[in-house]
Every structure is written in C-alpha cells, then in structure tokens.
Design brief:
With 379 residues, the protein is α/β, with parallel strands linked by helices. It has 3 domains: 14-90 and 128-217, P-loop containing nucleotide triphosphate hydrolases (Rossmann fold), CATH 3.40.50; 223-299; 306-375, Orthogonal Bundle (Arc Repressor Mutant, subunit A). 50% of the residues lie in helices and 15% in strands. The protein is built from 15 helices and 11 strands. It has a 5-stranded parallel beta sheet, sandwiched between helices. Strand 10 and strand 11 (360-363) form a beta hairpin. Helix 1 (20-31) crosses helix 2 (46-56).
Length: 379
C-alpha cells in the first residue's frame, strides 16, 4: 500500500492541503500581469504551489516559464539558465528549439544535446568570457518579444530568487528593474526561501528592486485544515487517527507542510493496517525521525559557537514569540549584551538555521528544535 503523505521535492495537486486561496491569488496575479514576490520559510511548498498554478494556465492564452536560479552564481549563469528555460517553454523538438534560439537569443551560443531518453536539451553559453549588458538585455527582454510575436501572455517564475543577492554585482537586479516595468504582457513571480533577504530586496530603499512588485508571504497551514486532510488519508488506507492526535502532530510541526507531511508519513508507516494511531505511535515516529537525523544534527551543533548554541537552546525551550533581545532572555541564557545577541542572530540567519516570525524568531527545522530540547539541553 502506498503511503498517502508526500514530502520533499515538487508534489502534485493531490498532495496539497488547502492552499485554495493562495492558488486563486497567484492565478489572478498572473492573469493581471502583476510582479509578485512570493516568500516563506524553506520547504513550505512555494515551488509546488507556483508550478501547479503555471500548469493551470490555458495554453492557448499563456506561455509559462519556470526558471530555477539555485544553480546560478552570477550574471553569466543567470543568462544561460534563463535562456534555456525560456527556450524549452517554447519548444519540445530540436528543430523548434533551434528556431527559437535564432529568433530570440542571437547573442548566445546554443548547443543541442539529448538526455538518456533521447529528448532534446539545449545549453547556452556566452560568446564572450563575461556577460555584457546587451546579452542580459536580450534575455530579459525576450519574454516581452515572445508575448508580442505569439499573441499570448508570458508568465515567468524565478525560483530561489534571493540567489541574485550573492552575485558579484547588482547588474542583474538593475537590468531586471529597468526592463520589466514596461512589459505589459508579461507577468513575473519571484520566489524566495529566505524571507529576510526577499523582504530587504523589496522594502529597502537602496535596493534596485525596491517596490518593484507586490509581496506575498506564504504561511504555514492551519490545524483545522490539516485535521480532515490527515484523518481522511488514514481512513482511505484502512487505518485510523483521531482529530485530537492530528492536532498533536500539528503542535509539533506548527503546521509547516514539509514537517507535517513528513511526520504523518512516519506515523502512517508505524500504524498497523486496521489499527488506530495514538500518542505512542506519534512519539515513536518522532524518535525515529530524530534518530535518522541525529548525525546531521550533531554535526551542525558542533559547528556552532558557544553563543549560537546558547541562543538556540533558549529559542528551543522558551515559548513562541519570546523577545530574544530582552534583558531577561539574555540573562537566562548567558548571552551577554543585546549587541552580542544581534551578532548571533545575524550569523544564524545567514546559516538559514533560524527565521524571522512575527517580531521574534523560530528554528526553521521543526525536528531540529525537538532534537535541541531532548539532546542538547545540557550539552
């Protein structure tokens, strides 16, 4: 019997719990030609959500383009990855890919290969050693030129958009701002998994992309949405779980989709066919997950400074929303001054171990928080 709970990677529509409002909002933004910055914690389902919306756009009216910026490290790779994504959204055969290249990317060198199944793949390279402004302008103006020629709206989704902040300079940011503001028949969605970076990019007056679009934070899913979703999937597979125990799972995962699905996956595996999952099953599932992650968590813990460990212990053991710069918190966890704590926070944000949350901070990995509570409280 197939486990009904999915986590990790891009998931299909059947794995979604609610998100109806978010799907409607994103669809409307794409239809209206908006520029939208969509951001959240990691693993909250942004990519799956946006790719689902892109798949729902009618092909006769829209050309969807999904660009994954994770492997990029500068303007050169940005140009190559974006040109590839645009070309592959226009054509699936070798001849048509080459024609699209001639039509829209004359400044780039294209190489056509095939994958293990014999499907054509295209790769782009610059004709010079480094990117020049005309190269970047050609690629970033391509969506508008395609929309005009094909008489369809182009929708471009840049995933892991915060990567451009790590480029050696802000050429991509500045050129992007300059070109997209007049592209009436192109919609843009910029996805970011490091909230503080995306917020800084959109809200900092010194940023080239300041107020370049609306911002749309994606939040965890409410417990009341999870309850029927989890219960029904247990029941369909001949197992049972009460609403109260689903709520117990959500208290552990705080409604985060990845961690909720992951824990439900383990609880389901440990629950026998015809049986009902209870408190002991949930405890066993949590312990199993912590055991599997123990090496990685221990390695990460040992890489942290003493002050970083003290801060994380405090964050893991105190109530949500605790004011980490208050004199009481600093004293309880031997963190010294507020300026010292600020340095710790900045370092942990940069390491992506914590995230901002309603005026305070949280440990991004819900299971790591439990591991700290159980294994690192005294270490």
């Amino acid at each position: 019997m197939t486990n009904p709970f999915r986590y990790g990677g891009v998931v299909g529509e059947e794995a979604f719990c609610n998100r109806k409002q978010e799907l409607a909002d994103l669809l409307r933004a794409m239809e209206n030609g908006e520029r939208l910055f969509l951001y959240s914690e990691r693993r909250l389902g942004k990519t799956s959500l946006v790719r689902l919306v892109l798949s729902r756009l009618p092909q006769r009216d829209y050309i969807p383009v999904y660009v994954d910026l994770w492997p990029t490290d500068g303007a050169e790779s940005f140009v190559a990855v974006t040109a590839k994504a645009i070309t592959e959204s226009l054509a699936t055969t070798a001849d048509r890919m080459l024609q699209a290249t001639r039509d829209f990317f004359s400044r780039l060198t294209a190489t056509l290969t095939t994958d293990s199944q014999g499907n054509p793949q295209i790769r782009f390279e610059l004709r010079e050693l480094e990117v020049r402004l005309p190269d970047l302008e050609e690629v970033l103006s391509a969506p508008a030129r395609i929309a005009a020629r094909r008489k369809r709206r182009v929708v471009v989704a840049f995933d892991e958009f915060q990567r451009i902040l790590e480029y050696p300079n802000d050429l991509v940011e500045r050129t992007l701002r300059s070109l997209i503001q007049d592209q009436e028949d192109v919609s843009y969605v910029f996805l970011g998994s490091r909230k503080h970076l995306i917020q800084r990019m959109v809200l900092d007056r010194s940023s080239p992309l300041y107020r370049a679009g609306g911002h749309y934070p994606l939040n965890p899913i409410s417990t009341e949405d999870w309850v029927p979703f989890v219960r029904e999937r247990f029941e369909r597979s001949g197992k049972q779980i009460s609403d109260d125990y689903v709520r117990s799972i959500c208290r552990i995962t705080e409604g985060h989709p990845f961690y909720t699905q992951h824990l439900c996956h383990s609880v389901w595996e440990l629950c026998e066919l015809g049986a009902s999952a209870g408190e002991e099953t949930i405890d066993d599932a949590v312990n199993l997950l912590l055991e599997r992650e123990n090496y990685a968590y221990t390695t990460l813990w040992e890489s942290l400074t003493r002050m970083q460990r003290r801060f994380l212990r405090g964050l893991a053991t105190e109530a949500d929303g605790v004011q980490v710069f208050s004199a009481a918190f600093l004293q309880r966890h031997q963190l010294g001054s507020a300026s010292t704590a600020q340095g710790v926070v900045d370092a942990l944000l940069e390491k992506d171990i914590i995230d901002r949350s309603d005026g305070s901070f949280l440990i991004s990995d819900r299971f790591y928080r439990i591991w700290i509570q159980q294994y690192a409280a005294l270490g």
